[in-house]
Amino acid sequence: MCIRDRIYNTIFHPDTKQKISYPFRMCAFMPTNLPIMFGMLCTPQTIVNVVFWQWINQTYNACPNYNNRNATSSFTNKELGIAYTGAVSTSISIALVGRWLSKRFGVQTGSISSQRFRNGLVSLVALSCAGFLNLFLIRYNEMNKGVMLMHKDREYGISKAAARKAVVSSACTRAVLPIPLTMLTAVCWKLIEMVRMTPKGRSGVIAADMLILVFTLTVSMPIALSLFKQELTINKDKLEPEFRNIKDANGNLITQFNFNKGL
What we know:
This protein has 9 helices and 4 strands. The longest helix has 29 residues, at 77-105. By secondary structure, the protein is mostly helical.
């Protein structure tokens, strides 16, 4: 039963009960990101290439962020278009700043592991900010409209306070996501160097980078998502006044409500 429920929850949205398209499910994070990362690694780092691949990357990021939101409140096409434009343009701008920082403060000498570690530290802040803002802006209207509060499978109304907690908590997972991506890459390269299996030539390094990416992409998203449960609780005192004196069917005062945080 538990395994069946987990499979069901990865496919169907908890609010709408509609099937989430495969590329936008969290379980598809690794296979869908792999070709994007390959393009970012293997193309010359010109401004045009960086903007193009960052547009592809941030557009893809926006799609799972939207599809795995709390779907209590509906979005108009105009609201979604504004959110997408703001999220992607902001994220690309931050990524370009990260590229500039990498070129100015990064290193291209020394062992591969030391290069990956130092350059990863430089780009980490930009990647974390871009991921946070992408989700925050895509789901910004959620905070304006609110999310449904639940208690023992019964609905009690829409809360903007709960929506703020849902969006910020979800955005924090995207800020944490680049940490294992960047740091585990350096650790893997250090292990390769320790056993003296460093590949020769650029193609060998790229092939090793791709294998390492498969590993880091596979473990990074579960680590980030484990920070917060999908269904969060919130104390009545942190909600709007109309939710602070609600009683359940048995006449007991409800002190905590549940809501879907989204992913």
